[in-house]
Amino acid sequence: AFFKVVLCADSNPPKAIGFIYKNASGNHPLDSYVNTVDEVERITGIDFFPALPDEIEEKVEAEYDLKLW
Which helix (H) or strand (E) element contains residue 40? Predict the structure, then answer.
């Protein structure tokens, strides 16, 4: 699989979203690949956005809203 995480720190409030794509054929709706950044961190073992203040990092990594993107 491969992943992507995106942070928009300039929005008010900041927002983030994560994606995980398995190496399999298929053409599924985008929402079938969306995950929280926390979930991508759990799977990859990578800590994304460690420079953010903890209260912002915890919030943006725990939730996503695909409609905002």
Answer: helix 37-44
pLDDT tens figures, 41-54: 999 999 999 999 99
- Measured distance between the N- and C-terminal CA atoms of the chain, rounded to whole angstroms: 22
Where residue 49 falls (left for φ over 0; alpha for ψ -120 to 50; beta otherwise) is: left
CA distance 5 to 10: 16
With residues binned 3-state (H G I as helix, E B as strand, rest as coil), the percentages for the chain, rounded to 5, are 35, 25, 45
Q: Give the pLDDT score at 46.
A: 97
